[in-house]
Amino acid sequence: MKTDSLTFLLGFLCLSVFSPLQCEPKASIPEEKLLVLTVATKETDGFKRFMRSARQFNYTVKVLGRGEKWTGGDYMSAPGGGQKVRLLKSAMDIMKEEDKIILFVDSYDVIFSSGPKELLKKFQQTGHKVVFSAETLIWPDRHLEDKHPHVREGKRFLGAGGIPGFIGYAQNIKEMVSNWSGQDDDSDQLFYTKLYINPEKRKSLNITLDSKCRLFQNLYGALDEVVLKFENGRVRARNVLYDTLPVIVHGNGPTKESEYPGVVIGIFIQQPTPFLTVFFERLLSLQYPKNRLKLFIYNQESHHEQHVYAFLFLLNHEAEYQGVKIIGPLKNDNALKILIELNKPFIAPMMSKPGRLWSNFWGALSADGYYARSEDYVDIVQGRRVGIWNVPYVSQVYLLRADILRNELKGPDLFQSATLDSDMAFCSKVRDQPCPDVYWFPVFTNVACEHLIEEMENFGQWSGGGNVDTRIQGGYENVPTIDIHMNQISFEREWHKFLLEYVAPVTEKMFPGYYTKFGIKPDEQPSLRPHHDASTFTINIALNQVGTDFQGGGCRFLRYDCSIKSQRKGWALMHPGRLTHYHEGLPTTEGVRYISVSFVDP
Fold first, then answer.
1. What confidence score (pLDDT) does residue 330 get?
2. Between 240 and 404, where is the model more confident?
3. Under 8 Å between Cβ of 492 and 513
4. pTM value?
5. What integer pLDDT is reported at residue 253 of this predicted model?
6. Distance between CA atoms of 298 and 294, rounded to whole angstroms?
7. Do 356 and 231 share a structural domain?
8. 212-221 burial by CB neighbour count: b if 16+ within 10 A, else e?
9. How far is CA 136 from the centre of its chain?
10. Could you tell me if 240 and 274 lie in one domain?
11. How far apart are CA 134 and CA 216, in angstroms?
């Protein structure tokens, strides 16, 4: 018996060795065989993000239903999405290539994290003809739970929300949707679920689920499973529960159990107010989920402090609300004095919650401009590192110099952004560099500025502002200004010495050289049309004070869409001339603005 068993085993091994063709891996699917189908009746921001992601990884995408009216329901009041099945069925009916691999996904809340090669390899490894995304939650009919086949490990239910993503051979998918006869607002999810839980259909179509999220990652109900993996300059979503790197990430479904929209209620108590406690009682009686409400309470009346804190803390309602912000006195009575003594244009005290790592600042930003924990964040919040830190984001409370808001930060859109909250937009604009390769530095005292203006006004022979100018070589000024040249007041030699001794040491770090000098008086010529300076770089010195001597003015660099509007008196503004810094002079709306300009060439 033992000899026979040994002979059989050796015979089997020899068969494996001498029959290599039976052991070769199956040929990989060519990437050109893959076609991505999606439905998008409108080009939303989510759709544009999806298409950028597809282009990044070289997917071929065909969009179905573009320009059609959406009649597939809203997925919130009732299940819907049947219109997507109808569009897919129509597309498959006219498709000739049966050996195509079809990936059908949503486009409004889906991104790719890797390319077709990895997707096709993982699909082929399943050994099935159609693979659906999977979830731990069942939707829309919970009564079908027992009919779902059990899985040894992983997610058991067919993926929900928007489109249940799936990939498969064109022939199988065509057969799968051929039986669709529902209405546009019927549930696509229920249609696919019934196909999957039917043993005969599941076997004939060769359907399986991506239970371990190797291909698809649905985020609904699975946020705790997913982290971002940073490696070799790339970022991937990683499922830590199954240790997999999904190729497609689907941000489906709400992240909270409640589907009510969030509401912010702002309460401002700026004077003694009768019946405040009655108001709070009525606020509590609102028929709305408390965890979908945010309260912003501003109280500047000490008389009402007891009422506010009784409402929020003694009645223990703070935990019921999604967020509560109270703006009032800091616990440190000397906080304002300390902040002012530090003499910073923008500074914030650190605020944190006892025993927690929450604070009113971010230590770092991620690549997309949102929160990232800095290396020393915990040490700072817990008080192990004490000092003044440069941080990218603060909120809740901060101290600014008033002149900063009047000048550098006076824009009406300071708190506005298409993609950021108001406080994040504010901090982003404070961080942003105003213009690339434009520098300013102090060179003149107030007395020097005033003396130079007096000399020019005493001479009084301002140019006419036309193109014909006999003072320059060639006699033609391409961008005419109303000005006086330094050599007209016999000040050229002194100005030359000033440039060499005071400006050159600074400019040599960026640009070498020097050339023409003149003063400009823009009260008669309040602005300059867009132009390039005929220089290697330009020095522009403000001789009087914006907001005091004049209003408006400044310089706008068109290529970079940025402006310098509040140049300080006695400070030099330096920027490249030819080629890169195409610019224009902004209108002076009131008063007289004096600047001294030097066009510098090697």
1. 47
2. 240
3. no
4. 0.45
5. 64
6. 13
7. no
8. bbbbbbbbbb
9. 30
10. no
11. 8
The token pair that represents 36 in the structure block: 């991505």
Same-domain pairing of 165 and 309: no
- What one-character DSSP code corresponds to residue 28? P
Catalytic residue among 86, 214, 556, 593: 593
Q: What is the mean pLDDT of residues 201-205?
A: 95
Kindly tell me the burial class for residue 142, based on how many C-beta atoms sit within 10 Å of its own C-beta (0-12, 13-18, 19 or more): exposed
342 and 316 share a domain? Answer: no
Q: What 8-state DSSP symbol labels residue 26? A: P
Is a pLDDT exceeding 80 seen at residue 379?
yes
For the chain, the domain total comes to 4
Asked if residue 474 belongs to a domain, the reply is: yes
H or E, element range at 506? helix 504-507
Cβ contact 218:133 at 8 Å: yes
Distance CA 379, CA 349 (A): 16
Give the pair of three-digit tokens for residue 499: 């440039």
Q: Are residues 299 and 350 in the same domain?
A: no
Number of residues assigned to the chain = 602
pLDDT, residue 19, reads 39
Task: Write the CATH number for 237.
Answer: 3.90.550.10
Domain identity same for 523 and 417: no
Asked whether residue 3 is domain-assigned, the answer is: no
Percent of the chain surpassing pLDDT 90: 27
364-365 and 371-372 beta bridge pairing: antiparallel
Question: Residue 193: pLDDT above 60?
Answer: yes
Angle at 592 between CA 586 and CA 595, to 5 degrees: 65
Cα–Cα distance measured from residue 222 to residue 227, given in angstroms and rounded to the nearest whole number: 11
Per the domain annotation, does 26 fall within a domain? no
Q: Residue 217: which H helix or E strand, with range?
A: strand 216-218
Catalytic residue list contains 593: yes
Measured distance CA(428)–CA(414) in Å, rounded: 9
Report which DSSP code applies to 517: E
Same-domain check for residues 108 and 81 = yes
Could you tell me which of 323, 132, 106, 95 has the C-alpha nearest to residue 214? 132
Task: Flag whether 16 is in a domain.
Answer: no
Other residues' Cβ atoms within 10 Å of the Cβ of residue 59 = 19
Residue 273 carries which DSSP code?
Answer: -
Structural domain of 58: 31-250
Please tell me the distance from the alpha carbon of residue 576 to that of residue 599, in angstroms, as a whole number: 10
Q: Which residue has the tokens 């007891």?
A: 306
Residue 538, beta-bridge partner list:
575, 599
Q: In b/e form, how buried is each residue of 486-499, taking b as 16+ CB within 10 angstroms? A: bebbebeeebeebb
Same domain, 202 and 287: no
DSSP 559-601: TTTEEE--PPTTEEEEEE-SSS--EEEPPEEEE---EEEEEE-
CB atoms within 10 A of CB 509: 8
Q: CA–CA separation, 89 vs 317, rounded Å?
A: 52
b/e 19-32 (16+ beta carbons within 10 angstroms → b): eeeeeeeeeebeee
Domain boundary among 327, 349, 382: 327
Q: Measured over all CA atoms, what is the biggest interatomic distance in the chain, rounded to whole angstroms?
A: 124
- φ and ψ at residue 409, rounded to 5 degrees: -115, 35
The domain boundary, picked from 196, 221, 250, lies at: 250
Model confidence pLDDT, tens digit, residues 500-544: 888 777 777 765 554 444 444 444 444 445 555 556 678 888 888
